[in-house]
Fold each of these.
Amino acid sequence: MRFSLLPTVLLVGGLTLAAPQAQAQMSGDHAMPAATMSTGDLRVALNNLLAEHAQLGLTATAAALAGRSAEFKAAAGALDANSVQLSQAIGTVYGDGAGQAFLALWRKHIGFIVDYATGVAKKDQKMQDKAVNDLLGYTKDFGAFLNSANPNLPTEVVADLVKGHVVGFKAAIDAQAKGDWATAYAKTREAVAHMQMIADPLAMAIAKQFPDKYAARGN
Amino acid sequence: MRYLRQAWLSAGVVVLPWLRPAPEQTISIHLFHFEPKAIEVPVGTLVVWDNGDDIEHTVTSGRDEQADGRFGGKLAGKGTRFTMRFEEPGDYSYFCDRHHFMRGEIRVNPSGKAGN
């Protein structure tokens, strides 16, 4: 595997991973949680959503750079639907206000990625530099958001992981713009795989924070 | 005796409001939103914004990302606060100048009437 698992271990050391099996516990008593999800299910759900984010994001930039506007529009719509779904998942755990704030914050980084791709398409170095700076600033915001949500996620560690996401996207977009498709797809695969580095710590930190909701089952 | 009682009550009416502590309302900043987002307070209320996020936020009066200069302050990081006493009745909108999607509203009532 290309990416180190060290951050995952640092963030959630000691947590036993659960088998990815869906289980809902019915309860007739309001004193009990109506349902619990296994830690494995949570990991799978977040990995799917975040991998989809990377895939759709780079599909959108490839279409935009090639001037396929109808495809770009459709890809951007699908990407936003994915963003909404992610925010709903966050809202389920941390409340509607947090979900709405997450959506606004998440859309912001997509906007910066679009700015970068636009700068590349226009060969506008100033626009590219600004977008990269905005994205780097964004990593701190996103780290702070997740740290506020969950103290098991240190701000700087999350910021570094998101920085990896940004750098990976930038490399893929640069290759797309050059028409270097072998590199573009290799970088796309890396970008998709990298999302696991965010999804896994996030899932495990949530499970650690809410052990009653996200039960570890099996080994 | 009756006059004495009336005088005592009258004095109480005058004095008691002075003794009453100034109203205070806290708005917490957590997970990049103001909570509660909208408040209604009596005139003279001291509003305290308390930053629970590990990042700088601002409380900037205005709307649609346009500061109107009525009040404003920076909250440099987790545990920092900004306070503002509202002496004039009216509606006040504010936002975070670093994260424009963070918005809040304050209605200051003239009669000393608090809302929810």
Amino acid sequence: MGAWTSYRLRLRRKRWKYRARRKGRELSLVQDRTHDIKPNDVLLFCTFRNEDIRLPFFLQYYRDLGVNHFVLVDNDSSDGGAEYAADQPDVSLWTTKGPYGRSRFGIDWLTYLQDEYAHGHWALTVDVDEFFVYPFCDTRPIRALADWLEASDVRSFGTMMLDMYPKGPVSAAVYERGADPFKLANWFDPGNYILERNDLYRNLWIQGGPRARTFFAENPKQAPALNKIPFVKWDRDYAYVSSTHMLLPRGLNLVYGQNGGEKSSGVLLHAKFLNLFSDRASEEAERAEHYGKGREYKSYISEDDGDHEIWCQWSEQYINWRQLEALGLMSKGNWA
Amino acid sequence: MTFGVVMLVHTAFNRAEEVIRHWVAGGCPVVVHVDSDVDQETYDAFVHSLADLDIVRFSERFQCEWGMWGLVEATQEASQLMLQEFPEVGHVFLASGACLPLRTVSELGAFLAERPETDFIESATTADVPWTVGGLDRERFTLRFPFSWKRRRRLFDGYVRLQQVLGVKRRIPAGLVPHMGSQWWCLTRKTLSAILNDPKRPKYDRYFRRVWIPDESYFQTLVRLHATRIQSRSLTLSKFDFQGKPHIFYNDHAEILRRSECFVARKIWPNAGLLYRVFPRGSDPKTANAEPSTGTVDRIFARALERRTRGRPGLYMHSRFPNLLNANGIAAVPFSVLQGFDDVFTNFQDWLSKQTGAQVHGHLYAKDKAHFANEVSVFRGALSDSARLRDYNAQGFLTNLVWNARDTHQCLMFGPADTQSISWLLAHDTNARVWVISGAWSIPLFLSGKPASEVRAEAARLQRTEHQLLKALRAPDAHARIHIDTLADFLENPRDVMQMVVDEIAGHRADELSDLPEMVDLTGLPAFLQELKNQGMHPFLTGDLSDEIQKRAKTAAQPRSYVIDHR
């Protein structure tokens, strides 16, 4: 890996930084509470569209983990979610009508805001249906994780997205605003994930899980990537490459032990498979703003109208992070 | 007689204040050193907050950077001040702002009063104990370290390398034997003042100024010159991880901290409110004389270290992805791969699973789908039987399978008609037990009843594929446990091989075989093979089969009698 590759990646990073600054102009401020951000605060960054039904639980979940401030981008919602978010005491909100697909799925907007507000902070970048689980998250706030990572000279924290689904048809899991989605979708695939190393960015590319098993069995290469690096001590020089799957500089992607040891890592519980899913899938397939022009969503609706049972005999019911640790889906590493 | 506390503080001042107040309330004088990097305003506020306490002193401030001399200088000054100002102090206890007293001052006081002559300081010779960070142990004392490891890593590394290349070595002052140990000690007035007032101290200081991490070696070395009785252990419970940084205690450690019966613990996370609320625990006559015992704490942190450095073998996940090329053992536990056995025997899988209790799969790598045991469509871990999914990452499929079902021995049938993409893994994994009856692929062809001319091409293809696999298995770097027989050799004595297979899988639980599974009828196979030869396709992997082979195999399959009957 020569100087040329490093230089090329540097140019790429600079291009994305420039792009984020340009796309940042699409944002208009709705509610600015960023003056409340204190130097040690953990910040959360998120883009959403028509997620009013999910927002209350989402915000509460992360408040309970100890996130201090939410920096949100509303992408042209029409369901009142933006107004709800703007009313929250710990939310700063921007809005945009700009196309989601052309801002690298919201990442450009968030990068712009991260550069403005997260420099020197621990920043968590997640979607509204992703719920961060890390070792000891039931007894230690996220600040403890941030402090420990910092003391260990670690700048980024890796996770895997764990798709959660209900037992029975997905449409029967009727989600209600403010409720815990994992009361309904509390099953997951414990051991069918496959990994490959990306030699250019040095991240791991993980696929598998229920989506590969049920929707992409005929075409596994198209199955969505599950590796995510959502928790980063942000610096103005950093840039996410593709969603939160990987970052530049690429040293940030080395969140895994390469000599047999386990680094500390977490999981993003993905509350995708609820009754909201089939409506969403048709809508997103039509809008074609997601990755690969919504290809993923198209494959969901092509299968008998998106209503099927994902659950199988070897699905595992979610209990807590210790269970995920024991199954090898996350690791304490040397955090004890 | 009482004891005094020297406290080094650089952050979390409100917690430090709480702890200082605790010491003072117990009647201990405290000398505080505040890092000179702390800004004046914060410092003044901190001094002011403690102004009401008359037995607290602040010593001259030094810059305390990890691994540098400033820490020792700060400790020296503060200790000096302690000895001057408080003549009633018998022991001096060195603590930091992140130290939390777990037991009452009076209990620690009583403990020390019972041992007035004893110095508590961890002190081990570097020659015997390999405590290393960054690959340096002995060299800490023989090289010079003017650059900060934290801030100027490159300069630090470069200067170390330069000295190593040039072969520069410092002379250790006469009379000193380098010792190392935890920075946190508790020394008697006698020993401490002997160290501080040693006429050779300027010389020693000059030497230690350029030693790396002198706070872990200065007092630890010098105490050996002056102490009468050393207990080489620290009274402060403090664990270090593989990077040499202290483990941090959180609220959920309250129980193990309590049970450790240690006097002081560090490092405490400043926001661990519960710990600061419940400790120091109230005085209890039953446990007032309890000796510190750190067994549980040690075990927990040793496990964490093991996780970080060795991990769980056979687990591949987003924070553990070792390079397979130099991995010792790829799958989590031993597993068996059997090639050709199910061609020779009917119902071999059922027989094997009954005989060994192992999980016996069919052809997991068959072209149509993964044939799991009992032909289920989903196996443990929610592994799908889809051939496409499996072949997308064939090695991952196998390592997942073995990891998910690591509580039972997994066996799988294999053959030249299957996808071959795991052959590298089969040859290299030390956990793989590979049993091959080469040439057994000819049996299904023979049984199909088709003429040799028709199956010739297929036979050639299977033979080529099997030959490739055998080549991989016979490579010099193949570390799997591999046993290869030709069909002819196997039929000479099937019982011995079968017994070996069963012993290997079932281990000590294996019984002597009573019955072998039923063998397919091989009458006419030699002729069939000869016919293939006549077609120009030499089945060289089967070995030489003769017509009697089946008959002999049958007899060899009977349990052998070792008692010779003389009648």
